[in-house]
Design brief:
Helix content: 25-40%
Strand order of the largest sheet: 6-7-8-3-9-10
CATH class of the largest domain: Alpha Beta
CATH superfamily of the largest domain: P-loop containing nucleotide triphosphate hydrolases
Radius of gyration: 26 Å
Order of helices and strands: EEEHEEHEHHHEHEHEEHEHEEHEH
Low-confidence stretches: 327-331
CATH architecture of the largest domain: 3-Layer(aba) Sandwich
Mean pLDDT: 87
Number of strands: 14
Structural class: alpha/beta
Largest sheet: 6 strands, mixed
Length: 331
C-alpha cells in the first residue's frame, strides 16, 4: 500500500529523518515506535503529503506523493498530534465542512457523516460545540474527519497523548476496529500501546529505522536468552547437576549460596511448553525443595532499549571515524 524509499528530511543543518526505507502492507495496523524527537511526526507529515522531503520517494497505492499529490492524498486520512478542529462549530457542522473540503459529493455527504459518526462513537455529541467536548471526544472527532472520503490508509500521530486511562482504552479499541477495513499507521512512544494495538512495528531512532517486524518477531529475534531464576534449599552442586541434565538447558550459574540455600540463574535455548515443569520435576526427583522459580524473558521494551543503544553506538563510531579518517588516525 505504501512504499518508502531512501526518505530523508533536513531542516537547515539538522537531519530529522535519514535514509528511511520500508513498506506498509494493506489491511495491517502498523506501530511507528520511537522516543520523542525520533522523527516520527516528520515522517508521518511526509506520508500524508503535508511536508516535502529533502530526498527519497513515497508512493501510496502506486501514486507518488510528490508527483501525483492529489491522487495520493485521496487515499490517506490523517490525524496530526494536534487535531485540526474548529472549536466554534458543532461536530456535525465540522465534519460536513471537512467532507466538502475533501470533495465528498453532496448525495453521499449525509451517508458519510452518519458512517464516521457511528464508527467513532460520537453520535451523542454530534450536535454539541467542539469547544465543549472532552479531550477524548475531540480525539474521536479528529479520527472521524480522517475517515471522511473513505481513505485506504489512516495515519494517526500520537492519538492517545493526554487522555485518561479509560479514554486510552476506548481509543485503542477504536483503532483496532479501524484495522479491519483500513491500513492504519499509528505513531507512539508507548511500548504497551504497540503490543496492544499493532500487528507490525517500525522502530525509529534519531531519524533512522532500527528494526521492523511483528512484536513477537522482534522479541524473539533480539531478546536473546531466556533465563530462569531458581532458589532452592540444597547445596549448589546437587542442584546444578539436576538442572544441567534437563534438555534445553544451556548453562547454570550460581548467584548466591548461604545457610543451605542457593540461588541459580538457568539459561535455556527454548522455554516452550513444559520447560517450567521440567525444571521443577528435575529438582523434585532429587528431593530438592524449590523455594522460587521465575522465568525472565526480554520484553519489547528491552528490545527497543537494546536497539537504540546499538544504533547510538554505531552512529558514534561512524562519527568518530569521519573525524579521524578511514584509518582511525588523524591526518
Amino acid at each position: 500500500m505504501i512504499e518508502v524509499s531512501h526518505l530523508t528530511k533536513r531542516y537547515g543543518g539538522r537531519t530529522a529523518v535519514e535514509d528511511l526505507t520500508f513498506t506498509v502492507e494493506s489491511g495491517t495496523v502498523y506501530g511507528f515506535l520511537g522516543p520523542n524527537g525520533a522523527g516520527k511526526s516528520t515522517t508521518m507529515n511526509i506520508l500524508a503529503g503535508c511536508l516535502a522531503a529533502t530526498e527519497g520517494k513515497v508512493t501510496v497505492d502506486g501514486h507518488d506523493i510528490f508527483d501525483e499529490p492529489i491522487q495520493a492524498k485521496r487515499r490517506v486520512g490523517y490525524l496530526p498530534e494536534q487535531p485540526p478542529l474548529y472549536l466554534d462549530m458543532t461536530v456535525r457542522e465540522y465534519l460536513s465542512f471537512v467532507a466538502r473540503a475533501k470533495g465528498v459529493k453532496i448525495p453521499d455527504l449525509e451517508k458519510q457523516l452518519e458512517r464516521v459518526i457511528a464508527v467513532t462513537g460520537t453520535a451523542e455529541v454530534a450536535d454539541r460545540l467542539i469547544s465543549n467536548l472532552s479531550k477524548g471526544f475531540r480525539q474521536r472527532v479528529g479520527i472521524a474527519q480522517a475517515l471522511l472520503g473513505d481513505p485506504a490508509v489512516i495515519i494517526l500521530d500520537e492519538p492517545t497523548v493526554g487522555l485518561d486511562p479509560l479514554q486510552i482504552v476506548e481509543i485503542r479499541r477504536l483503532i483496532r476496529s479501524l484495522g479491519k477495513d483500513h491500513t492504519v499507521i499509528l505513531s507512539t512512544h508507548i511500548l504497551g500501546e504497540v503490543q496492544t494495538v499493532c500487528d507490525r512495528v517500525l522502530m525509529i531512532h534519531k531519524g533512522h529505522l532500527v528494526a521492523s517486524g511483528t512484536p513477537a518477531e522482534l522479541e524473539e529475534q533480539f531478546a536473546g536468552k531466556i533465563t530462569y531464576h531458581i532458589r532452592v534449599k540444597a547445596g549448589s552442586l546437587e542442584a546444578r547437576e539436576a538442572l544441567e541434565a534437563v534438555p534445553g538447558v544451556l548453562s547454570v550459574e550460581e548467584t548466591e549460596n548461604s545457610d543451605g540455600r542457593c540461588a541459580l540463574e538457568v539459561s535455556v535455548s527454548d522455554a516452550g511448553e513444559g520447560m517450567d515443569e521440567r525444571l521443577s520435576f528435575a529438582l523434585s526427583d532429587k528431593r530438592i525443595p524449590v523455594l522460587r522459580l521465575e522465568r525472565e524473558q526480554a520484553s519489547l521494551e528491552d528490545v527497543f532499549l537494546a536497539l537504540t543503544k546499538e544504533a547510538d553506538d554505531q552512529m558514534e563510531k561512524e562519527k568518530s571515524g569521519k573525524k579521524t579518517g578511514k584509518g582511525g588516525r588523524r591526518p
